Amino acid sequence: MQLKYTNKINKIRTFALSLVFIGIAIMYIGIFFKTSIFLMTAFMLIGFLATIASAVVYFWIGMLSTRAIQVVCPNCEKPTKVLGRVDACMHCKQPLTMDPELDGKEFDEKYNIKKIQKKQS
Ligand SMILES: [Zn+2]
User: Fold this and answer.
1) Residue 55 needs a FRET pair 20 to 30 A away by CA distance; which of 48, 86, 103, 104 works?
2) Domain range for 63
């Protein structure tokens, strides 16, 4: 069975990258509305905002990355970053945990939600 979990930092990075392309695509669509200044401006503005948003996401991931704990993956022996209580290896998607309580338990993204953490303890 293939693990569907991906490293959070990688996931957010992919999201930021796709946001850049979406922003450019929206601005490109705006070119087709040359006849309407209003529509063209609207598309350009939305596209521009998407591009700005991706820059913000990139900045945010930079901040998160410094806070993430660097570990050596026990599976592929490459250094990876763990964000939150459970995360997956950047290289081999091996589920990793920072909590000894969760050691050996099945990987679950739910462990990162604060409410559920409280309920369990
Ligand atoms: Zn690994």
Assistant:
1) 86
2) 8-67
